[in-house]
Design a protein that fits this description.
Layout lengths: L12 H16 L3 H8 L3 H8 L7 H11 L4 H10 L7 H8 L4 E6 L10 H13 L5 H17 L7 E7 H5 L5 H16 L3 E6 L13 E5 L5 E6 L4 E4 L2 H17 L3 H13 L3
Parallel strand pairs: 1-2, 2-3
Antiparallel strand pairs: 1-4, 4-5, 5-6
Helix pairs in contact: 1-5, 2-3, 4-5, 5-6, 5-8, 7-8, 10-12
Length: 276
């Protein structure tokens, strides 16, 4: 194609949205004008979205998602474009997460977004609003993003999900006892799925715990590795597989030292009795 601009999805969330939109449009075999006809805008508008010159509105992202059969991927990426309260690196990470074959997740302090109920997510973000860390609008967007991320992983073939939670994640109350009861129920349901493993890393591990900060390691379809690690203020996305290998090894060590899934489920069931 003559004069077709190369897209760099790593440049920004808008660029990632545009690259995904173009890829899905190409797969459908549509021109920009044809997609514009389906979603009620001009081909020039689609072009501006694809090169990242114009940010997508939620309404247009939803229409494009439906027209291209994207199953929430475009809507999810549009949330990342609009979400100014996300930690650095996280919007880019989301685009990889929704395509990964395997997700290995370690979380400290709170239940991670992929396993949160909507009520738990809302209580968590309400606390951030109370502390004036984010605005109410940003809190609402974060809660919607939780739903979008979970929906994006509900696909076929289903990705393998390995989750290790620090014991503090399940001991820290969030919201009312009813909210925690429902959250524990969701964790137990998650552990029963055929493509998931859920483990608790107990406090008693002490110095044997090889990781101290949240970490996610993704295995992509080409078997390349991507990691995302967070501190309180920064996130780091690493796409060099060789650099990720030591983190993957540490994750395997964490799994070996953590409680078995059966013991972890028993702990959650016991905790759930305290919310009744």
């Amino acid at each position: 194609m003559v004069n077709r601009r190369e897209l760099d999805p790593e440049r920004s969330p808008s660029a990632a949205f545009g690259a995904l939109l173009r890829r899905l449009r190409d797969e459908r075999g549509w021109t920009q004008d044809q997609l514009g006809e389906h979603v009620g805008c001009s081909g020039a508008h689609i072009s501006a979205l694809e090169i990242g010159r114009r940010p997508p509105t939620q309404r247009l992202a939803t229409r494009c998602d439906q027209a291209l059969g994207a199953r929430g991927r475009l809507v999810s990426q549009s949330q990342a474009v609009r979400h100014t309260a996300l930690i650095e690196g996280f919007p880019q990470y989301i685009g990889y997460e929704e395509r990964a074959m395997e997700v290995r997740l370690y979380e400290v302090g709170v239940i991670p977004g992929l396993l949160q109920t909507q009520e738990y997510a809302s209580a968590l973000e309400a606390d951030a609003v109370r502390r004036e860390a984010i605005t109410p609008d940003q809190a609402e967007e974060r809660v919607r993003l939780v739903e979008m991320r979970q929906a994006a992983l509900d696909r076929s073939p289903a990705p393998l999900l390995f989750v290790v939670l620090d014991e503090g994640c399940v001991l820290r109350p969030m919201g009312t006892p009813e909210i925690m009861d429902a959250q524990f129920a969701k964790l137990l349901e998650f552990a029963e799925r055929p493509h998931t493993v859920l483990q608790i890393a107990p406090f008693s591990m002490g110095a044997r715990r090889p990781l101290s900060l949240p970490l996610t390691v993704l295995t992509m379809r080409d078997r390349s590795l991507i990691s995302y690690a967070e501190s309180s203020q920064h996130g780091r996305l690493e796409r060099n597989s060789e650099a990720v290998l030591p983190l993957l090894a540490a994750y395997h060590q964490l799994q070996a030292e953590a409680m078995s899934q059966a013991a972890s489920v028993a702990m959650i069931e016991q905790l759930r009795k305290g919310t009744s």
